[in-house]
Write a structure and sequence with these properties.
The protein is α/β, with parallel strands linked by helices. The chain has two domains: 2-161 and 363-378, Glycogen Phosphorylase B (Rossmann fold), CATH 3.40.50; 170-359, Glycogen Phosphorylase B (Rossmann fold, 3-Layer(aba) Sandwich). It is built from 18 helices and 13 strands. The strands form two sheets. Strands 3-2-1-4-5-6-7 form a seven-stranded parallel beta sheet, with helices on both faces. Strands 10-9-8-11-12-13 form a six-stranded parallel beta sheet, sandwiched between helices. The longest helix has 18 residues, at 67-84.
Length: 379
């Protein structure tokens, strides 16, 4: 069968590549065409129709400034889907773009639409459930609490487990922890502990968060600071926000987390990955005009937390410093609480163990692929 996938950012590229690999196991004749990234390209053996770097715009102003590009991307994608005639369209997260693509496909093509990694309508824009009911044939969830949410809206979904569990387990199996080798490769002291800084995958996130993260980590004595560079961001962009004592590594986020004693993490998939490596963390997301944003957040968001760790646990496992709540002073104090000897470190690690139980066993990509193929065969 022919599978067309659309991904809009780095985490989606990772999860979609694992899904494609699993689809090929379930369907050896699988053909792929996609908007995505380098990991998907390795699995498919061909370049993406469009790389996600050309599509990732975040925030009202950047989207407004790039509307012409966004509409051009949509138009090119629509034409490509229509000319390739896939058996199914698989959308991965990225709802602003993907829900519009789902609507177009349902209006113009006789083609099933599957959604892998649900739009987070439980957090905001709950009205999008109407679009999902109308335009999405099957939804495959990776967050356990989404089952009850969608059930309350009379929409049945498939919970397949979380692919981050698979990715972390596979990395640990293939790359046993070797502190000396890692220190030698990145140029740090193997005897001194490490604080990992994960400042997001988009330029604006990095610009807003990384300088504060570096300053806070610098004020905790005795620790080395290492930034996990995001795919597609040039090293020179990072250097303007860090000091000489802060290292930047690319393509080694998991290796970094494997060696870190604690982490400062911008909200997103990285918060869950950090928990799976059992690294105590502070979640931080600075936004300009913080007081205004904090007020709007209380009005617009339907959930109490922004990090996946807390959302899945249903309680505050990790501290979240958001908008005007994120200051260097608060970051430093919270960080001191989770390094070795800190009063909150042990409790957070215990909560991580319960989080793992709630997520379930590895095999999310395989379960999703099997169910997708079964749904296609039935239809």
């Amino acid at each position: 069968m022919k599978y067309y996938l659309i991904v809009g950012e780095a985490s989606g590229d990772l999860h979609a590549s694992n899904l494609m690999r699993a689809l090929r196991e379930e369907d050896p004749a699988a053909e792929f065409r996609f908007l995505g990234g380098d990991l998907m390209a390795k699995v498919a053996g061909c370049a993406p129709v469009k790389h996600y770097r050309e599509m990732a715009y975040m925030g009202f102003i950047p989207v407004l400034l790039h509307l012409r590009t966004i509409f051009r991307n949509m138009n090119e994608c629509q034409k490509d889907i229509a000319s390739w005639h896939p058996d199914v369209l698989i959308l991965v997260d990225y709802p602003g773009f993907n829900l519009k693509m789902a609507r177009w496909v349902k209006r113009h093509l006789s083609l099933p639409v599957y959604y892998y990694i649900s739009p987070k309508i439980w957090a905001w824009k709950e009205y999008r459930i109407k679009n999902i009911r109308r335009d999405v044939d099957e939804l495959f969830s990776i967050l356990p609490f989404e089952v009850d949410f969608f059930k309350s809206h009379h929409y049945k979904i498939h919970y397949v487990g979380n692919p981050c569990v698979d990715a972390v387990e596979a990395f640990r199996r293939e790359h046993p922890a070797d502190r000396k080798a890692f220190a030698r490769e990145v140029g740090i002291d193997p005897e001194r502990p490490v604080i990992a800084l994960l400042a997001g995958s988009r330029r604006q996130e990095i610009k807003d968060n990384l300088p504060l993260m570096v300053q806070a980590a610098r004020e905790v004595e005795g620790y080395q600071r290492i930034v996990a560079g995001a795919p597609g961001i040039d090293p020179s962009y990072y250097r303007q926000f860090v000091d000489e004592g802060t290292k930047i590594v690319f393509g080694q986020t998991y290796a970094l987390l494997q060696q870190a004693e604690a982490a400062l993490v911008t909200s997103g998939t990285a918060t869950l990955e950090t928990a799976l490596f059992k690294v105590p963390q502070v979640v931080c997301y600075y936004i300009p005009w913080g007081k205004l944003v904090s007020g709007l957040r209380r009005c617009l968001l339907k959930v109490d937390y922004i990090s996946l760790v807390n959302l899945i646990a249903g309680k505050e496992v990790v501290t979240e410093l958001v908008a005007d709540g994120m200051t260097v002073g608060r970051l430093r104090r919270e960080l001191q609480e989770i390094v070795k000897g800190g009063s909150r470190r042990h409790r957070q690690l215990e909560d991580y163990d319960r989080l793992l139980q709630r997520l379930g066993a590895p095999g999310a990509s395989r379960r999703a692929a099997r169910q997708m193929v079964e749904c296609l065969q039935r239809s």
